[in-house]
Structures are given as C-alpha cells and as structure tokens.
Design goal:
By secondary structure, the chain is mainly α. Among the domains are: 16-45; 218-294, no CATH class. Helix content is 72%, strand content 0%. Helix 9 packs parallel to helix 11 (200-212) and helix 10 (188-194) packs antiparallel against helix 11 (200-212). The longest helix is centred in the first third of the chain and has 44 residues, at 2-45. The chain is elongated, with a radius of gyration of 30 Å.
Length: 294
Amino acid sequence: MDELKTDQQKKSENSRIYVLFYSFFLIPFMIAVFGAVFFLLFKFVTYETNDVEKLLNQVKIGSASKRWQSAFELAKVLNNPDKEPLSASFKDQLSSAYTRSIHDDPLVRSYLAMAMGATQDTIFGQNLILGLKDESIETRIAAVQALGMIQYGPAVDPINKLIQSTDTETERLSATISLGMIGDSKAIPFLENLLEDEEANIRWDAAIALAKMGNNSGAYIIEGLLDREYLNKFSQIDPVEQKKVLMVAIKTASILFDKRFEDDLISLSKNDADLKIRDAAIKALKNNYSNGTN
C-alpha cells in the first residue's frame, strides 16, 4: 500500500513538474519565439529604405503589392529636398520602368509618375505626355500633375486637349492647376476660357493661375474669394476649407496688385473673426497697397 502510494505520489509529482515545465518554460519560450518571428516578419513587410536604386529595383521585380508600395516610397523619397543628386543611369531606369508600367497596376504607374514629378526634371516630360493618353483616369491625373511639378512647357497644348476631351471634373481641375504650375504664357488663352467654366473650383484655380502669371483677367473672381458672404453660398465648403480659400486669395492678391482687391482686404483686416486671416490681410495691404489699413 505504501509502495502504491509512493508510486502515485511520484506520478503526481512528475505530473506537477510536467505542468510547471510547460507553464514556466516551454510556453513562454514558444511565445518568445513566435513573437520574435512575428516581429521580424512585420519588419520585413514594413521595411523602408531611402535607397532610390533599391526601391526602383523592387518596383521592377517585386510582388504586386510590393511594387506599388515601393513606387509610393520612391515618390516620397524623391520629394525630399535633401535627396542625393540622381544619376543619368537612374533617370533612364525610372523612365523605362514608367514605360513598362503601362499594363501594370495603375497604382504603380501613378506613383512612378509622381516620382518623376518630384525630381522636377524636365527630362521626364515626353514620357509623362504619353501618360496623358492612358486608359486609367488615375494614371492620367498623376501624369498631368507630374507635368505641372516639372513645369514642362511643351505639355501646355496636350494638357489643354485633355481639358477639352474629358468630362471628369477632377481631371479638368488637375489639368487647370498644372497649367498654372507650368506658368507658360501659351497657357493664358486656355486659362482665360476656363474663367467661364461651369465648375466653381475650375474658375477659381484658373483665376489664381492667371494671377500668378501676372494676368488680371480673373481678378473679378479673386474678388469673390476675398468675400466670406460669397463663399458662404457654397455649402459644401466647411469652415476649415473656407479659411484655406481665403488665405490663398489673400496671397494671390499680394502677388497681383489690383485696386479692386483693396476694399475687401481692408474689410478682412478689420472685421474678420479669424485673427490669422486679419493678420494676412494686414500684411498684404502694407506690402502692396498704399492706403494700408487706414
């Protein structure tokens, strides 16, 4: 009986040791191992590099998801003003990758276009003009935005043709903004036509683009943008967006001197509830208008 009891006790002790081994050693060890593996996988998936050569290589040979992510990272890195100078070889490879991306995921082609735009190098101009003919609206918009970023003068006519041929407001708005960014005088007649566009956003951006080029054809539109009562008519514009519109209009009024803006700037400088708006209007008056705030 004592021997049986001893055996049972031994089994119980062995069982207890077995449980303790799992509880205090093996399970924590397994958790640690799986945690380390998960961490490494996470680091691998989310790994970011600033090496433009490596990123472009991932665009060319990576998996479907890796290609567009690498193209996105490439555009982000190239948009950094402190980036290293790009070699002629890299530029050739980027152009080639964009050309081959015509049948790839639109995200890949779009981000490659933005990467080329971020370089601000007109060497990519002709490639991007070809992108204006893409079937995908996303890649067309990316191409037109990139052409504006590199300020490619020969793109003025192709962009205007895009404006005339598309019935999509987003595409026409992007094209309007890009014409203003390019800043070529050839775009003035096209932008003046857009001052009568049925879409308010397009009218506004056409007027601002013309003002940046020293043309006051859209001054009457900028007058409206300096007036909160006019902006209040657009219910889709929330207070944050309305403030942005006013700040852009004030900045534009500072660039393009026109007496028609003076009364609106004085009103904003004295009466607007937003102190930043008032301050911006005061500075615009002091810098550009003789009467100041008096």
